[in-house]
Amino acid sequence: MPTHIAILGAGIFVRTQYIPRLREIGDCVIIKAIWSRSEESAKAAVELARDFSPEVECKWGDSGIDDIIQDTSIQGVAIVLAGEAQVDMSLKMLKAGKHVIQEKPASGSTDEAEKALLGYKALCNSIAQQPIWAVAENYRFEPAFVESRKLMNDIGDMMHIQVIVEGSMNSSNPYFSSSWRRNFTGGFILDMGVHFIAGLRMIAGCEISTVSAIAHYVDKTLPPPDNLCSLFQLENGCAGVFVMAVSSASPKILWRIDGSKGTLQIERGNESSRHGYVVLFNKADGHSQRTFYPFSGVNEELKCFIHDIAQASSKEGATCEAEPRSSYIEGARDVAVLEAMLKSSEKQGAQVHVKKF
Ligand SMILES: *[C@@H]1O[C@H](CO)[C@@H](O)[C@H](O)[C@H]1NC(C)=O
Ligand SMILES: *[C@@H]1O[C@H](CO)[C@@H](O)[C@H](O)[C@H]1NC(C)=O
Ligand SMILES: *[C@@H]1O[C@H](CO)[C@@H](O)[C@H](O)[C@H]1NC(C)=O
């Protein structure tokens, strides 16, 4: 039996990622409805999904939300809305007993995430089956990071980590003019930054305990801040640097970990016209390996969400553990690191402890 879901949101990411990726797994998922605030944008997205979900319905406005809540055939909901609206909508859908996958960032602040988690716990205690709450950040599902995590076992003692993000968020980027990102504390640093922190936390396999950072605002066509330079320390004592420019003339994105027995580097790149990551592992004994992994994080995390819903439905009444890599709490931990960096910058780089979740 295919899983029935609804999509809330009909923006660029829904049209260019959610719908095509869901089509690829069209044998196990059916889109029952697509909702947007306006009828017009919901309709445009619905037309894109009709080939593999012929009965998809167009929903808009408050009454559209009520219809989705009341439709008991809809098991899961993907929430792809403006950052500040997502947590409230997620909780609304979870209360209605729907499984939820929400786009990143998990929240706009750790205060919001804490309140949200309390609300989620309370509702889990009050209903028979705990609905899944996943955050779609995709990096924890990228094969490049999954494989790099394994290579970390051979790195010896971790010496230091560098994360360099020189982004390409200029006026040629389709998300550049997105209005909610211009009214979001932390701007693109928080919105995009959670991905790079997710990658860092995944390969480090250890939480970041303290940070010190200076933010800077240079490109006035972007929301502030657009640059961040940070020193961080992991719970295991290892330190590293995280440098991020939202828009750079020469984009480059890499994570590099030096260990006593080798150096691991993951860098965004392309091969045979496919985009993805080049993973380099140079060992102290002279052995080196290079592997290219095309992007597939969005496919993997959506597959996982649909699979988890199917598992939960087959075990009616029993608690079902959803994939921990996509749990809300992991998303909240990424927000906490960036929030601590931004707070440190407000205090001229003073050391700040990262809030624990
Ligand atoms: C935006 O950045 C990309 C990648 O660096 C570049 O190719 C493009 O020319 C830039 N566009 C503008 C308007 O600066
Ligand atoms: C900006 O964000 C605040 C807080 O999330 C919200 O209340 C307000 O409506 C937003 N303003 C605009 C113009 O989107
Ligand atoms: C692909 O990667 C090469 C370097 O390996 C780079 O010169 C080229 O600009 C990249 N192409 C695209 C489309 O990003």
Automatic annotation (TrEMBL):
A single cellular component GO annotation: cytoplasm
Source organism, top-level taxon: Eukaryota
Any single biological process term in GO: NADPH regeneration
Pfam families registered for this protein in UniProt: GFO_IDH_MocA, GFO_IDH_MocA_C
Annotated InterPro entries: Gfo/Idh/MocA-like_OxRdtase_C, Gfo/Idh/MocA-like_OxRdtase_N, NAD(P)-bd_dom_sf
A Gene Ontology molecular function term of the record: nucleotide binding
Residue stretches making up the Gfo/Idh/MocA-like oxidoreductase C-terminal domain: 169-348
All residue ranges annotated as the Gfo/Idh/MocA-like oxidoreductase N-terminal domain in the record: 4-116
Protein name: Gfo/Idh/MocA-like oxidoreductase N-terminal domain-containing protein
Organism: Asparagus officinalis (Garden asparagus)
Phylogenetic classification of the source organism: Eukaryota, Viridiplantae, Streptophyta, Embryophyta, Tracheophyta
